[in-house]
Amino acid sequence: MKLKYLLLNTGIQYPDSWKEMDITGICYDSRKIQKGNMFVCLRGRNTDGHIYAGDAAFRGAAVVIAEEALSLPGTPLIQVEDSRKALAAIAANYYGHPARFISLYGVTGTNGKTTVSYFVKSILEAWGKPCGLTGTISYKVGNREYEAERTTPESLDLQRIFAELREQGIRCCVMEVSSHALQLGRVRDLSFDYSIFTNFAQDHMDFHKDREEYYRIKKKLFTQTAKMGIINIDDAAGQRLLKELREENIPVCGFSLKDSQADYYGEMLSMGAAGSRLLFRYKGRDLTELKTSFTGWFSLYNILAAAACLHSAGAPSHVIEEGIRTMKGVPGRFEPVENNRDISVIIDFAHTPDALENVLIAASDMTKGRLICVFGCGGDRDRSKRPLMGKVAGRYADYCIVTSDNPRTESQQKIVADIEEGLYETGCNYEIIDDRRKALERAIAMYQKGDLILVAGKGHENYQIIGSSKYYFNDREIIRELIDKGETGNYGED
User: Fold this and answer.
1) pTM as predicted
2) Nearest-CA neighbor of 192 among 227, 165, 216?
3) pLDDT band at 490, cuts 50/70/90?
4) What is the mean pLDDT of residues 59-83?
5) 3-state SS assignment for residue 494
6) Quick one: 98-325 is in which CATH superfamily?
7) Which fold is adopted by the domain 3-94?
């Protein structure tokens, strides 16, 4: 593609003599540069693309986009004020603005984004509308599935995914939209048809200045929403968001499990280990009964959010009911680990105080014996949530095993000390086993009939990051392996 078309309507200034320059592709990772590519320098959490501009030039970059006046002899440099803004506009031009042909459904909030996204996708497909998905677990494009490098892809990767959806004739895509993505401009210039706000709790305080900034960033999604924003008004931040958006004449509606006067109201009919039933109502009118194999109040909120969104989009009640009913599970989200020894183990991605509390409450409702919780906290991330998670775990679990999550470059001992600060004051019995595999082995060894083991923090993840190295580690596989050994514990036998 000619440079003049790539930079069309972007406002980026460059010499007229460069207009006919051929660009073979776009890259923001210098290691992936091919001859004739454009290299865009992005500043990230851990590194800065400007450092690698010379490497990109050496590898054959035709032109470099940067915020700094770099010295790159022989390689044209275009200086811009905001490289991420530039990348979003350039990527859209390169792929022919595919998002214009796709209905976008955005989901934001601290917890529940992944499960809500899966429910939205399930309902859309029950409606006969094939749907793509981008989120924490993976990116789904038709029958293809790609590993997720981040919850919300970079703008360049998003446009590539949208282009692939367009080529396959898929006209819907549901996206988890993280606060990082909103702040870093990954979804800049995208127009969402429908957006969902799940809840607001403490997270990412290592990235955001404070909770107010975190809230304002989440709000940005709804200023990019054309048709309807769907807001959880049982959440205090959700109430504020609904009020502010209505004052700004942005179309929004509220959903609730507590307030029967909400636009969308869910009346819990039954809930237990086998599943739940929810009466779905709109403006005081019964629409349908939603049946699901999911349990726990947090699951009902996720279901209600998806149902409200798709009803707003015009989906018939029977379609919504079918989409909810046929959704069987989300990897790593309150997922039972099947085994041949009848040991009750659930894994979950919960890595915030609020999420951990939700899954512990749900687990305790299903437990006849002891609730054993295995968890840790990530390193090089928000320290302030660690004692809160310790307090939550100690309050609801009968026994806690504190272990490693992804310590990264931070001392595991320091991470544990932060957790203990909250755990200790609850009086809960606990022990510390830094090695996650040994921690899982200990939990299984102490299992007795009627107990339930909740393993929190990693969920679908199949790795651990220790230091700067990434190792394969899958809670689910290791738990099954340890149970199959059958060397310790009574494994559910009388």
Assistant:
1) 0.90
2) 227
3) very low
4) 95
5) coil
6) Mur-like, catalytic domain (3.40.1190.10)
7) 3.40.1390
